[in-house]
Design a protein that fits this description.
The structure is a single chain. The chain is about 15% helix and about 40% strand. With about 170 residues, it is mainly β. Strands 1, 2, 3, 4, 6, 7 and 8 form a seven-stranded antiparallel β-sheet that branches. A two-stranded antiparallel sheet has the order 5-9.
């Protein structure tokens, strides 16, 4: 008898639980809001050329480095002059959404060359001084420097080339 009462009670509880579960199987929330915010497009503008200045080569290889702060130095067989052309770090203006962070991507080593009257010269070890954050006006200015490899008795003349700088929102 006790078994019949226990089985009946269990059956009643299962039926009651099944009815409650079925009654709560679906719920709907109406008029749920959705939104999107379109951000200001990130833009970059080069305002000053990276220029290594006037260089006199010698019988040995050498390098010329211009830092993002615009400081120029040399190693090996080059003499630095300032008689005609001054040296400059490249300067970039970035515009975008205020206070947002971004990343600066510079060329990998030895992928940029300056071509001219003689053998091409490699430019590498690119560096920048960006904080990688836009200010309250959505702007930042930063500089880029690099190192130029000058060959033995490099032929005189103007050497030019280009490189890419990319900025991306984080």
């Amino acid at each position: 008898m006790k078994k019949i009462i226990l089985l009946t009670t269990a059956l009643v509880l299962m039926v009651f639980a099944a009815e409650n579960a079925a009654a709560q199987a679906t719920a709907t929330e109406s008029d749920v809001p959705a939104a999107a915010r379109i951000m200001t497009i990130l833009a970059i503008d080069n305002t000053t050329t990276l220029h290594f200045g006037d260089i006199v080569p010698s019988g040995t290889e050498g390098t010329v480095t211009v830092t993002p702060a615009g400081v120029r130095s040399s190693t090996g067989g080059v003499t630095l002059l300032e008689q005609v052309t001054t040296h400059t770090a490249a300067v970039f203006d970035v515009d975008g959404e205020e206070n947002l962070y971004y990343t600066v991507s510079l060329p990998a080593d030895a992928v940029v060359s300056l071509t001219g009257a003689g053998d091409p010269m490699a430019v590498n070890t690119f560096t920048h001084n960006s904080t990688e954050q836009l200010d309250a006006s959505g702007e930042e200015t930063f500089n880029v420097g690099a190192t130029l490899s000058v060959g033995i008795n490099q032929d005189p003349g103007l050497y030019e080339g280009t490189f890419d700088v990319t900025v991306t929102y984080d």
